[in-house]
Amino acid sequence: MSFGPPPAGFPPPAPASWTPPSEIEQALFEAKGRGDWAAYFGALARGRLFFEIQKDQADATPSATYAVFGHDPRIPGGRVWVVYTEGMLPAPEPHRVFDWNHLEWFAKVWERTDPPVIVVNPGSPCEAFLPSAPPHSAAWAQYGEQAPARKRSLRLHTLRIGGPLHGTVAHGLACGALLCVNNGSFWNGMAWHGIGYPGERKRLREWWGITTREQWQDYLRDLLACEQHSSVWDFALGLRRTIARDFGGHVDTGYWRQAAANVIRANSEGSVVVSEEGVTRTEPRPEYEVEARIEGVQRLIGRITRYEARMRADGVLDENGYVSSVDAWDLGRASKMARWGLGARFGTLAEAESAVIQAGRAAALSHKSWQDFSAGYILGRCLHFDDEEFGAWYQDMVEAHRILMTEPGSPWLNIPFR
Q1: CA angle in degrees (0–180, nearest 5) for 287-294-375
Q2: pLDDT band at 9 (very low <50, low <70, confident <90, very high)
Q3: Sheet of strand 128-131, all strands in order from the earlier edge strand to the far edge
Q4: DSSP-assigned letter for residue 87
Q5: Do 122 and 92 form a contact (C-beta atoms < 8 A)?
Q6: 380 and 367 in contact (C-beta within 8 Å)?
Q7: Which three-class secondary structure state does DSSP give residue 98?
Q8: Phi, psi of 110, deg, nearest 5
Q9: Of 78, 79, 98, nearest in space to 88 by CA
Q10: Which three-class secondary structure state does DSSP give residue 129?
Q11: What is the SS3 assignment for 302?
């Protein structure tokens, strides 16, 4: 049995005018058009291949794989194992979910009761048929086994079709672009499958503690309201904004630190409030508590200024620039949380799209430009994770920032921030 084109009697695929959704489908289409099956399988081996799984079984036993096989009348007996490259996945449906693996895995797990043929991207111009039983499977599995190490690299991935490139949805999606570049996903992928249904569930469970729709909704609501980061960060940055506005420009760090101490002491002295309900008295805070709070905020101011100095040196901030707000840290994650929840089937496509639009609108209120948004996101991420190590938490974001600020196809260069 040979692999490649469909069985005899069916028309050849492919008008040359077909627009592949992404780079992987482009490579498959071109290789197939040349009849270069080595290049075709080499391209397949570099990416993820998605296949439908049984949702109820995946919920019951996430560590196992329960493939759903399909039917194709072109194959004797009709039974096929349908697989998709990322750009060809169907739109998300509530009870239809997918997992993924690499090319060689399909040959390794095949059993005699499985379909005799794997169909790649059925019905598309880059479709191909793979005999799934040994010894035929060895011919294509070797491309995966011999593929270069699949190293993670930061790149901008764009859906040419199937994802918005302009408008309010695209703007909201672009707010999550730093994470998309970092994670290797399509920045404009609204119909989100991500790393597959089990992977998206695992991501939310392990990183966020989210296991239910209600928890996902709560986190998404807090992120959109910019309530998932420290209020102390907001206090420090808000105080600097006020000083800069009142005095028209650069804020000396020593003055900022002293102003923070003055405000904290003034707010800790206790007060008497007279209202229709009567008189409410608040007692002064203990001195040790006040001093501890002052020390903590002043230490935070030092961290902020050191991160800003590094961001200026790395080109994230302009020479005299500073971070006005870290709302971007929440709103960038909200843009992704909306999609993660869709991939995990905690929410619908309509709900995810609405949240993405809200994230974009809120970002335009909190920040002035994509550069300002990026700096706020990076600072928030580093204050949360990096602890002034300037390690991967920082460096990966700086590289993603550079990609988004320089590559011609970047949404940050093609979508107005406001």
Answers
A1: 160
A2: very low
A3: 70-71, 79-83, 117-120, 128-131
A4: G
A5: no
A6: no
A7: strand
A8: -60, 140
A9: 98
A10: strand
A11: helix
Residue (of 130, 43, 54, 56) closest to 87 by Cα position: 43
**Residue 248 CB partners (closer than 8 Å, separation 6+):** none
b/e sequence 392-401, b meaning 16+ C-beta within 10 Å: eebebbbbbb
Q: Which residues contact 60 (CB under 8 A, 6 or more apart)?
A: none
CA distances from 356 to 49, 175, 217, 273, 331 (A): 27, 9, 13, 41, 9
The two three-digit tokens of residue 239, written as one number: 């105080």
Q: Which of 194, 100, 107 is nearest to 144 (CA)?
A: 107
For tokens 């948004």, name the residue: 373
Domain extents in the chain: 23-145, 168-229+327-414
Question: Over the chain, what is the mean pLDDT?
Answer: 92
- pLDDT, tens digit, for every residue of 38-80? 999 999 999 999 999 999 999 999 888 899 999 999 999 999 9
C-alpha–C-alpha distance, residues 55 and 344, integer Å: 11
Of the candidates 332, 358, 314, 340, the one whose C-alpha atom is nearest the C-alpha of residue 412 is 332
* Cα atoms in the 13 Å half-sphere on the side-chain side of 341: 30
pLDDT at 6: 45
Q: How far apart are CA 410 and CA 158, in angstroms?
A: 9
Strands annotated E in 199-315: 271-275, 278-282
Strand partners, 157: 186
pLDDT for residue 208 is more than 90: yes
pLDDT tens, position by position, 255-276: 999 999 999 999 888 655 556 6
Sign of torsion over alpha carbons 409, 414, 415, 418: positive
Q: What is the CA radius of gyration of the chain?
A: 26
